[in-house]
């Protein structure tokens, strides 16, 4: 299963804001875009969704930008997935199948979906940020 770019970018944006959380100053879109290599036009749309979900807030003005609405320890990967595309961790459920095989496959997929949702709920951004600080990402060409 591949992670959609919009989810990856949203998680990276939250991580960047999490890195600045203790400073209590908003981070400008351009800074997030450059630091996390997210196309700015794409980032604008993601930040709107994250704001509507209550994960980030915006501050206007020259010193304005975005900041987290709560500590990274209280934001899970599942929160970001739901804010950007909740269909990834939402169960189909309630379908009526004429064949037992369809019902069985649906049940297996629902079980997998529950497990993925549970794991995403467990992973908090404070954990991810601490791993990022300890293990710098190495890029190879």
Give a written overview of the molecule.
The protein contains six helices and two strands, in the order H-H-H-E-E-H-H-H. The chain has a single domain (5-134), classed as Arc Repressor Mutant, subunit A (Orthogonal Bundle). Helix 1 (5-19) crosses helix 4 and helix 1 (5-19) crosses helix 6 (125-134). It has a two-stranded antiparallel ribbon with strand order 1-2. The mean pLDDT is 87. The protein has 141 residues and is mostly helical. Strand 1 (56-59) and strand 2 (65-68) form a beta hairpin. The chain has helices spanning 5-19, 29-36, 40-52, 77-85, 100-122, 125-134, and strands spanning 56-59, 65-68. The longest helix has 23 residues, at 100-122. 21% of the residues are buried.
What's the arrangement of secondary structure elements?
Elements: H1 5-19, H2 29-36, H3 40-52, E1 56-59, E2 65-68, H4 77-85, H5 100-122, H6 125-134
Antiparallel strand pairs: 1-2
Helix pairs in contact: 1-2, 1-3, 1-4, 1-6, 4-5
């Amino acid at each position: 299963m591949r992670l959609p770019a919009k989810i990856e970018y949203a998680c990276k944006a939250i991580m960047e804001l999490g890195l600045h959380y203790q400073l209590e100053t908003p981070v400008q879109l351009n800074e997030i875009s450059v630091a996390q290599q997210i196309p700015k036009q794409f980032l604008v749309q993601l930040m709107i969704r994250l704001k509507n979900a209550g994960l980030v807030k915006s501050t206007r003005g020259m010193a304005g930008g975005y900041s987290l609405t709560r500590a990274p320890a209280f934001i899970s990967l599942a929160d970001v997935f739901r804010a950007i595309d909740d269909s990834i961790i939402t169960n189909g459920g309630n379908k009526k199948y004429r064949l037992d095989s369809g019902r069985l496959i649906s049940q297996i997929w629902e079980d997998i979906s529950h497990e993925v949702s549970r794991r995403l709920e467990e992973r908090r951004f404070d954990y991810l940020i601490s791993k990022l600080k300890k293990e710098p990402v190495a890029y190879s060409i």
